[in-house]
Amino acid sequence: MNERDLRYLVAISECGNLRLASARLNITQPALTKCIMRMEEETGTKLFQRKGRLIVPTSVGNVLIRRARTIIQSIDETQREIHDYVNGSRGHARLGVVATITEFLMPDILNDLTRSNPNVTLKLTVGMTDFLLDNLRRDELDVVISPVYESDEFDCLPIMKDQVVIVASRDHPLAGRPASLEELKEYKWILPQSSVGLRVWLERAFERLSLPPPQVQVEINSLPLMPKLIARTDLLSFTSRQNLTRTNGGENLVELAYPDITWERHFGIFTRKGGYIPTASQVLVDRIIQATANVD
């Protein structure tokens, strides 16, 4: 086995198609076919199988590809570590941040970083927790800032607290007055997809309070869009209190006071267990820890 073949196998498994994999790798499809044949001869078993138009790993193929990803990640991290050491440079940082805290946390940090470390380059990815952690898992990010949860895959350093509350437009029928839990059943919601931790917590809270699940009329994967959409509809939502002070629509929202449906959560800095953190990313982590030290 060699590194090149392992990279080819991973690309094929991720694309599910030789044409797409060849385009990603900038090599010919016959070269990928020969790679599969070579690896199947070496291992003595089939590594891929056809499923309709897709080519997918067999059970043995999945074992090999999982190991290949670990090997490739180790090689890439070693190369970056040596590059940092030899060049003595700050290098390149790859940071993922959930949208909830991007606007109020990152501008000052990035301004400070670019002024004091002008040679640092940064890839900043904004998204939801599951998307960011998947990128961290695949070694496409060095660090992720996201709500804290227990994981065997990642190390997590809690850095700041947050509260998630029910919100509505200022013109909503429930705004500005005490409301019962029963009244929540009468309205529909705009929420992120069902796998996102924020929605999972909300649905469990409803279940705990013997309420039917929220009626989701709009499912969205862009949190920055939510304040404007909520402000123009009678839809309810569940979002950080931080969003109520934003100028992207948050100034038109109000919190509905439901103490039993208020989520106290922590944000944390996630890194891969045992993974190498490049110098530039560590500098960024240090600045984030410093900036959030006094945030309530």
Automatic annotation (TrEMBL):
- What InterPro entries does its record include? HTH-type_LysR_regulators (IPR050950), LysR_HTH_N (IPR000847), LysR_subst-bd (IPR005119), WH-like_DNA-bd_sf (IPR036388), WH_DNA-bd_sf (IPR036390)
- Pfam families named among the record's database cross-references: HTH_1, LysR_substrate
| Residue ranges of domain HTH lysR-type in the record | 1-58
Cytoplasm in keyword set: no
Query: Which key words are in the record?
Result: DNA-binding, Transcription, Transcription regulation
Q: Which family does it belong to?
A: Belongs to the LysR transcriptional regulatory family.
The protein's name is: LysR family transcriptional regulator
